[in-house]
Amino acid sequence: MPLGLLGLVAVFYLDEMPGSRGDIAGGTETRSWREQLRQLDLLGTAVFVPSLVCLLLALEFGTATFGWKDPRVIILFVVFAILLGVFAWLQYKQQDQATVPPRILKNRNITAGAWFASCCNASLAVTEYYLSVYFQGVRGFSAFRSGIYALPMIIGVCVASVTSGYLTSWLGYYVPYMYFTTLIAPIAAGLLTTVDLTTDLVKLLTYQGILGFAIGSGLMIPQYAVQTVLDPKEVSIGYAVVQFGSQLGPVIYLSASAALFTNRLKAEIQQHSPSTNVGALENVGLSDIRNSVGTDRLGDVLLGYDAAVVQTLYLPLALTCLTVFGPVAMEWRSVKRKRS
């Protein structure tokens, strides 16, 4: 909150908001601070922020604390839906004075970009998280070594992002790289669902690198689309919509994957090792599984963990398939035409 307040003060006093100057005397007349304050849409913010808080609390409580059928979780989801509806109504009522003008959301390039970014970032987040579970829990590696084994995917994302950015500047069109993501990422995500206790590490790291490169190829494309299709004064709003989608996706699907993994872990361990206390394992760190489970049951327990991880990795596979709606809805526009 202190940093947020500092940012608000800095923006208010140092940044010139669109429309903060009038048209009198060549635009030299500055509007009053009350008029600028009205442009901040404080009412919309006061509704939108609590709605997100309710959503995040519901996802957290439903996954790890109370369960999805608990009345508190249901009430949080209901309050989130109501407040979100109120926020949408306020945006519609205020039109261009709203935090997110409806005409921006009606631009199919913006909504398609937000969807695409959401699916891409969510698939990366879930894959990275549960491959760490696989490396530490199933293979018995340390947290540091597990982090090292995540580098191929990160490097793939970085290399592909730079490459696609350069090629976009050269060719002008950015939609083909979104199609590349949609075609290659599901293949790599599908290959990762084949991991087991004996999977060769080189093969596993290669799969990660391919997934990272595939997603990285299209990861920055929604931002290029925002720059191309929107007026310069509206680019910041378009960026905000795309970034909101890219950040909300991991939050939602990490919670969903946690619920999926927990349910599958209980079922798989009960199937492979019925005598194991699953409830006790939930309170054991990944690095302590081998110490808490006897050697006679360790193999069966690890089979359960492996099966649960693999079935959770089907979620990133589905998300990479859903990225197809991004390029299909996106207009074929050239960044070179925008510059000219």
Structural descriptors:
mainly alpha, 76% helix, globular
Topology:
Blueprint: H1 2-14, H2 33-38, H3 42-65, H4 71-94, H5 102-106, H6 108-138, H7 143-149, H8 151-171, H9 175-192, H10 201-219, H11 221-229, H12 235-272, H13 278-281, H14 289-292, H15 295-312, H16 314-322, H17 325-329, H18 335-339
Low-confidence stretches: 19-28
Structural class comes to: mainly alpha
What is the β-strand count?
Answer: 0
Radius of gyration: 24 Å
Mean pLDDT: 81
By DSSP (H or I, 4+ residues per run), the number of helices equals: 18
| Main sheet specs | none
Describe the structure.
This protein has 340 residues and is mainly alpha-helical. The protein has 18 helices and no strands. The chain has helices at residues 2-14, 33-38, 42-65, 71-94, 102-106, 108-138, 143-149, 151-171, 175-192, 201-219, 221-229, 235-272, 278-281, 289-292, 295-312, 314-322, 325-329, 335-339. Helix 6 (108-138) crosses helix 7 (143-149) and helix 9 (175-192) runs antiparallel to helix 10.
Summed up, what is this model?
The protein is mainly α.
